[in-house]
Design brief:
The structure is a single chain. With 284 residues, the protein is an alpha/beta fold. 33% of the residues lie in helices and 30% in strands. It contains 8 helices and 13 strands. The protein has a 7-stranded mixed beta sheet, with helices on both faces. A 4-stranded antiparallel beta sheet has the order 2-3-1-4, covered by helices on one side. A two-stranded antiparallel ribbon has the order 12-13. Strand 8, helix 6 and strand 9 form a beta-alpha-beta unit. 32% of the residues are buried.
Length: 284
């Protein structure tokens, strides 16, 4: 695979940003293979993502970062420069529903996700054999309803010891405490069905069937302290009709959930998602 540097920028909007950054890269001999920009007219914020062919530069990522710092200071940029040769380390978390976990593990093994899955954490032991078949460490951390803090202290230890860059809640049916949400802000990705808040609680698809819904959907988002209300990365829907049974709705829902989660994770890993308050700019 080709070796790239990814430059991601957010800054106050003004004339000349694209010209200045492009000129800087050209002066280093860099070849821009992909470029995306967006101006938010309401907030006056500018967003940019460049992929630069690393071999065209003849310098390390660290050297390029140092050279770019004066440009970043000139435009008051929040920015990062990522070397694609350094693969992200991902921890998956799951409870008893396997569809998202199975899908992500398959995509990872097939080379569709540019990351290393370094562990799976679960509050149940159901997914151990599946996970270990892929050669991935499995950590069973039961959650006692009377003392959840102890369990999440263990979860934090596992995530930190794995040196995880990203955590994916692949149908993990426990609410992360505020301390973990804050510690890993912008690095925890979750998936939920689209029926909230209308059909909360047990068997949401059966509730939706009784109500006669015509659209099933799923939302992939970053985790914040406010439940299922973090910045949205990706969403999708599946149309249903009176002909479909509750079992059909559950099946369609699983299909949408795993597809949306996989796309959201891939875009995160490829630095295509820029968080802006409680919204995102996604250069998909």
């Amino acid at each position: 695979m080709s070796h790239y540097y990814r430059l991601v920028v957010s800054c106050p909007d003004q004339v000349g940003i694209v010209a200045r950054v492009s000129s800087f890269i050209a002066q280093q001999g860099g070849s821009i293979t992909e470029a995306s920009q967006h101006s938010d007219l309401e907030t006056g914020r500018f967003f940019m993502r460049y992929e630069i062919l690393a071999d065209s530069l003849g310098m390390s990522a660290e050297a390029l970062r140092t050279s770019f710092e004066p440009v970043a200071a000139e435009f008051d940029m929040q920015w990062s420069l990522v070397d694609t040769q350094k693969r992200r380390r991902v921890v998956l978390m799951v409870s008893r529903e396997s569809h998202c976990l199975v899908d992500l593990l398959y995509r990872w093994q097939a080379g569709e996700l540019g990351c290393d899955i370094v562990g799976v954490i679960s509050n149940h032991d159901d997914m151990r054999s599946l996970t270990e078949w892929y050669g991935i460490p499995y950590h069973h951390v039961p959650v006692d309803p009377a003392d959840k803090q102890k369990a999440f202290e263990q979860v934090q230890e596992q995530i930190d010891s794995a040196r995880a860059d990203c955590v994916v809640l692949a149908r993990y049916m426990q609410i992360l405490p505020p301390s973990l949400c804050e510690r890993y802000a912008g690095r925890v990705i979750n998936i939920h069905h689209s029926f909230l808040p209308s059909f909360a609680g047990a068997k949401p698809y059966h509730q939706a069937y009784e109500r006669g819904v015509k659209l099933i959907g799923a939302t992939c988002h970053y985790v914040t302290e406010e439940l299922d209300a973090g910045p949205i990365i990706e969403q999708d829907i599946h149309r249903v009709s009176h002909c479909h049974t509750p079992t059909d709705l559950v099946r369609f829902g699983r299909d949408v959930e795993k597809a949306v989660l996989a796309r959201g994770l891939r875009w995160h890993l490829e630095d295509r998602v820029l968080i802006h308050g409680n919204k995102t700019v996604v250069f998909s």
